[in-house]
Amino acid sequence: MSIKVERPKNLLELWDILDQDDVRVVAGGTDLMVRVRAKVEKPKIMVDITGIPELKIFESQNDKIIIGATLTHSELLRHEIPQLLHDAISTIGSPQIRNMGTIGGNICNASPAGDAILPLYVYDAELTILSRNGERTIPIKEFIKGPGKTSLEKGEILSKITIPTIYNDYGHLFKKVGKRVAMTISIVSMGLIFKIEDGIIKDIKIAYGAVAPRVLRMMDVEAYLIGKKIEDRVLNEAQKMIFERVSPISDIRATGDYRREVAGNLILLLKEAYGKL
Amino acid sequence: MKRIRFTINGELRECDIEDDERLIDLIREDLGLTGTKEGCGQGECGACTVLLDGKPVASCLTLAVKVDGREVTTIEGISKGGRLHPIQEAFIEKGAVQCGFCTPGMVMALVPFLTEHKDPTRDEVRRAIEGNLCRCTGYEKIVDAAIYASKKLREVER
User: Fold this and answer.
1) What is the pLDDT of residue A85?
2) In a mutagenesis test of the B interface, which of A47, A94, A109, A181 is the best target, namely the one with the most B β-carbons within 10 Å?
3) Among residues A5, A113, B124, B128, which one has the fewest Cβ atoms lying within 10 Å of its Cβ?
4) Structural domains counted in chain B
């Protein structure tokens, strides 16, 4: 009845465990433990990868940072990380949950509302996938296939996340709409970074959470906005584009119509965010 | 079955536990320390908060095997020499306890917070206990107690 739990101390031990049948990788356990208790998931073996030192690295290089997959949200918040990522991670769960949950776990859960995932879309983060046979790197948007679905194959784990730091002089804005501030799953979330000079949008990257099966990068809205003056007419047009791009579901947290409306409206906050710089 | 060795409330213990046993069950059922409460069992309510290596975690979502070689502190472990912790005294003096079910979790969330934040604002306190639900008090008296406790702790240090 009970699930076997393995706690490898290094990668070599891990690969042997992953070769077995019906193995589920666990890190912080903040999502999986709930699912296992509700019997939504019944793996034969859970393998806790938080004891593997290679997965706990944090490296700051010239134009990027490299984050180990099992760093907890609290650990990340104590490091120098890009501001949008910092703001998004600060909204995850509660201190208890941030002390347990990991960035890699948030990514591999592949929730459309994953708060750590959204900024990684904005920054075009690269993920490193590791297996006994070596490693491969893949952009975040190709890694996540759908709600709860990733491109991880049997015997593979997410080992690290590489984020460019070349946008550190950009303005940023993260907005999470939920029922309350803490312990809430996003109804709609938006993250963006921007460079605006003399009222002209020079560059902007926008992503939305919880409004489609995956986090959405708004490439066409970005293309529309670049080169434009930051004014109501332009933002209203972007609002309309976003309204049409999203495909939200109705669920226990909000209706699809509400999510669509809010998603469109959130982009209007860009003006205010620019004004505050 | 797995054998783990860990420190609980300053005492080194060795226990045989089920592979998938939760930390809260190890604490309450195996060790008989029933001060820690289980509310939702899903990490939402914070009633089961204990300190793992000094940091608050939800013991209902923590696998007990994870505490092997580490240090756990529960509500039973914060009083010294028969005297309540200043945060516990403040909860009593400010009337921050009604039914009391959330209290151990609230106190455990506040212990590390008030160690790091000597003179917190009410907003900072609210963020520190954002993962702890109380259905009785409306939180005001809990925040009062935390602010009062921070004063007590500053006096103790002096």
Assistant:
1) 98
2) A94
3) B124
4) 2
